[in-house]
Inverse folding.
């Protein structure tokens, strides 16, 4: 497989990375996925990965041949090192620096480094991630410049030629729902709604028109607001 035709997608089982995976499946001949387990409180998202991958294969047979191995990497060391609302029982709020307590410092730097190591071995020339600067949660390592700097660092440090793709970088959440519709029509929108998980609290007991979640945390609010705006443009999609 030519590295130019092979991509590795950072895939968490959430809305953003599932949409990125669909984007990669329409863009590259071969696509593999990697997930990172760092003992985050929404371990339920890791369960969603299996369900999303199974449904994608079942509902989009033309993508099945392109979709290769899925790997889960243990990064529990991140949980040991950092003290945030995603790795500890800490309230979700803004800290004194104006950053949300859900911010895990260095997380995307670590994820992209790990993904680069795996892509190097697997012969994949493209890394795809759901980082986004538009509906900005205040995470510095989601910014376009941080991702571009990581591309340069990986290529210099590994003497490689990776291209880092962030299809959602300049899309808000409504546009992310719209992208899912463009890539896979209503069946993909349904799959994202029913199978993916974004809620910080890991709550899947409540069903909303945008999917499952507590409905209160910042991730649920963002997903719900984006879905409401998406419905204004495509009211027949429900
Ligand atoms: Zn929530």
């Amino acid at each position: 497989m030519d590295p130019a035709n092979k991509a590795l997608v950072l895939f968490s089982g959430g809305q953003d990375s599932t949409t990125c995976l669909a984007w990669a499946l329409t863009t590259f001949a071969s696509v593999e996925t990697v997930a990172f387990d760092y003992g985050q409180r929404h371990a339920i998202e890791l369960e969603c990965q299996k369900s999303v991958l199974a449904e994608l294969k079942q509902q989009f047979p033309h993508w099945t041949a392109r979709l290769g191995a899925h790997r889960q990497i243990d990064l529990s060391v991140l949980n040991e090192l950092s003290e945030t609302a995603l790795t500890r029982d800490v309230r979700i709020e803004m800290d004194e620096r104006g950053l949300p307590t859900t911010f895990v410092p260095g997380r995307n730097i670590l994820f992209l480094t790990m993904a680069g190591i795996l892509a190097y071995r697997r012969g994949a020339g493209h890394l795809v991630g759901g980082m986004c600067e538009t509906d900005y949660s205040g995470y510095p390592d989601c910014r376009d410049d941080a991702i571009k700097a990581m591309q340069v660092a990986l290529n210099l440090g590994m003497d490689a030629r990776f291209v880092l793709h962030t299809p959602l970088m300049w899309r808000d959440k409504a546009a992310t729902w719209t992208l899912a519709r463009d890539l896979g029509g209503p069946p993909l929108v349904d799959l994202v709604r029913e199978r993916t998980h974004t809620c910080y609290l890991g709550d899947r007991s409540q069903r909303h028109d945008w999917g499952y979640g507590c409905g209160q945390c910042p991730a649920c609010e963002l997903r719900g607001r984006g879905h409401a705006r998406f419905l204004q443009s495509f009211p027949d999609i429900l």
Q: What stands out?
A: The radius of gyration is 17 Å.
